[in-house]
Amino acid sequence: RGEVLRGYAASPGIAVGPSRRFHTPALDVPEGEGKEPAIELAALGSALRETADAIAGQRDGVAARAGEHEASIFDAHLLFLRDEALLGPARAAIGDDGLTAARAWRDAVDEMAATWASLEDEYMQARAVDLRSVGDQVLARIIDAPVPAPRLEAPGILVAADLTPADTAGLDPEMVRGIATAHGGPTSHAAVLARALGIPAVVGIGSRLLELAEGSMTAIDGEAGEVRIDPPADVVAGLEDEARAREERLATLRDRATEPAVTLDGVAVEVAANVGGPDEVEAAVGAGADGIGLFRTEFLFMDRAELPDEREQEAAYRAAAEALEGRPLLVRTLDAGADKPIAGLEQEPETNPFLGMRGIRLGLERPELLGAQLRALCRVAADHRLRIMFPMVATTDELAAARVALEEARAQVGDERAPGGGAEPVIEVGIMVEVPSAALMASTLAGDCDFFSIGTNDLTQYAMAADRGNEHVADLNDPLHPAVLRLIAITVEGAATRDRWVGVCGELAGDELAAPVLLGLGVRELSMAAPAIAAVKHAVRSTSLDDARALASSALACATAAEVRAMLASP
Ligand code: PEP
Ligand code: MG
User: Fold this and answer.
1) DSSP state for residue 509 in the 8-state scheme
2) Mean pLDDT over residues 3-22, rounded?
């Protein structure tokens, strides 16, 4: 029934079409001596300027379509064009060795990219890919060849080893019906942008994908994380029907998306959106979000040389709050480290970054960073409904220390206010429950905070000891494993002893099949990628709490994730 390749679900939807590789014209650098160094240097200079202009233009286009924070990735590309570590050797090769601008530039890029690519660090390897793509753009201009804009020559499914942000930003959704990549995780820039552009995508499929002949009939299911190669005609017809039916169903569900989600027996559930920046809030509200249940602030800090200062952060959080028009805004303090590297934040290399200095650990180690963020948030809280959440909390001491930092920030901001200038803002304070120790200690942690939001992405990887970005252990990494569900149950029970509410903001929250189980376990807030809201609200409205509780206790009694899934598929 055709070969099936599995990867990571990166952007939902079904797409069927011939596989297409990017066609990037190979650049032949002419042999021969350089002209006078001054002429070659001028050629290099103007190619650099033209490339910078082109990237800046692309940046603005992405900012308009997908938002400012997604566009900031191009700022990092612009920095390459000013990097002395690259320009110095290129100029020296022209001036001292008499090379042409083209050869000097190509050699300098090759050397730096090869060094980065040889490092263990995945982030630097990805930077090497970006550098080569920017380097090619400059080279093309020097030799007056067409700039190798990666493109599809005909509509189909884009198949690639990996995609740089520039590749993805230039994608024409008319041509690219779907995306399949051999490498990269579901949190890569490519995946994030694919979601923003609404193109179904599966990533991290493995190198078998790259052996496919151009034009192989390919069907991708961005929800299942599956790619079918050469499926028989009846399977294709079936998938096409499925895609149509999916779209029709979603269109119907979207009609009621902005109404509240209340179970059959009258329990209101907050269904919120996860966002990476303020510019996504309006669309989230349009998609039915009752609020923002996770503002991942990392995106404000990523791919830029200088970190955002207090005022810039305040403006971003304030813009998000304003767009919500009174709905709650839950902001997570910076969750840097491991799979969320921040270029502008120097960190020592670690052998196990996932078990290292990340999340609140990093925040407490750099009080000036956490303090600035908390002060920005306290200022916004004076005027808006705000929830603050700390990531990766593992111990009561961490929570206590984070609360001290918050109180300090609150006092500093309070001192700025004129005497009698309004009441102390009310801020709900919570933690992510994504480290198993926090789940197990929930009843104690609940004594020192107002809510929990369960991060099933990390909670699953730590409970199952399975890297969420490693395709070889993807089967272990199932948030519906009874072990994870039991941790959720313990968290909710712990919270209940203090009357605290519990939400889920990991990917599981956006899974409509999982919604009744989560409600049955006692979860009362679900936060997800905005396009999932309509279907999850529908799932809530179709459930009674009694049925949900029965389903949850059956799920807890299962032995495997497969058993849980089988039960949910045919209750
Ligand atoms: C999680 O871990 O489930 C979560 C929501 O946080 P992130 O995906 O940003 O790590
Ligand atoms: Mg997490």
Assistant:
1) G
2) 89
